[in-house]
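Memo to structure team: turn this sequence into structure tokens by end of day. - J.P.
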Amino acid sequence: MEDKECIHTSTCPIKDETDPPYYGHLARSSIALILAGGRGSRLHHLTDWRAKPAVPFGGKFRIIDFPLSNCVNSGIRRIGVATQYKSQSLVRHIQYGWSFLDGRFKEFVELLPAQQMSGESWYEGTADAVFQNIDILRRHNPKYVLILGGDHVYKMDYSKLIADHVKKSADMTIACLTIPQEETSGFGIMSVDEEWRINSFTEKPKPEDATPIPGKPGQALASMGIYVFNASFLFEQLVRDHNEKDSSHDFAKDLIPYQVPRFRIFAHRFIDSCVNIASSGEPYWRDVGTIDAYWEANIDLTSVIPDLNLYDDDWPIWTHQEQLPPAKFILAKKGRLGQAVNSMVSGGCIISGSTVCNSLLFSNVHIHSYCNIEESVILPNVEIGRNVHFKRVVVDKNCVIPEGLNVGFDREEDRKRFYVTDKGITLITPEMLGQRKHFVK
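Reply from structure team:
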């Protein structure tokens, strides 16, 4: 096969778009910007003191570790993280856990706090968050810009997404997945032609107004909030949108609807670049934006074959690794046996004369004797006193659970003190226990 010229430079001979070296070249020519400034209000009290991307997940990770790991594993080593809402724990996590990239090779994870760069306002929308960092992006002179959300759990090879973008000579490419039509009110919904060029895009339509996928009634094509732009095109569009007085400066509400009828905007199927296939045969992607979804995604990790594979050496999830002793299970007395079954238990945990079943324990959880913990997610640095019984509970960081507390068996009684979802998942935070961990008047 004859060499053919890269469509964006005359100095980049390549053999074929599917060659792995081509993917690596595109990744090195790209910069990723992760939008991590949102609160995530549907997680209720879990995001009272932290941004959603900083919420712990999976025993030792935080949600933002997934898009960050996808970038590094894809060969994208120039990454910006735009922060805004209560970002201190997120900033600390990135400083501690993501400082291993080497600046000598122009690799970095750069924190980009809202700084009122273009006026007196903070980030007003997703597009405005990028616009306010446009000078920083230009300084790195990328050919492609990858825009990501920081609040979803999934594994994806972004280099394949970028290669698909270049192969189609697109101005912008949107990663998409298939969802039930009754869920369309939470997504940007698009329709495409036979070449996967987008011919319509509607932000969060009612299910009855959403365009179904041809030949697949009851299903719709949804944006994942993952975008690839030619850098020069993105900068041009951000400046144009910034000068539109009536714009809300949001990609899904403003930029994409403007661009679709005027430019080459394509969809990319998630299944073509996903790394993790769930047991259902569908690519794994979770919006853990509600307490129920958060609980379900964590508890799924304790199953025999979880939908999300955290044991994949070929696509590891990187994070800040605390130096902790191994988990410890003590006492082997009748009625006072320290054990955990069908569970994940992180480093630093001590289970003393209690039983943990179908649960996930983050680091440094200490459970005293005569407790029974079932189907529960216990975040780091929690101490549980004697004779505590939990079922379908999420416990926030730093809680000290008093002796004899029973939660998860009487919803009405639980609602008097804690937050209980419609599906019966109970959330406990230090403030609900009268424990003041945040010294704010």
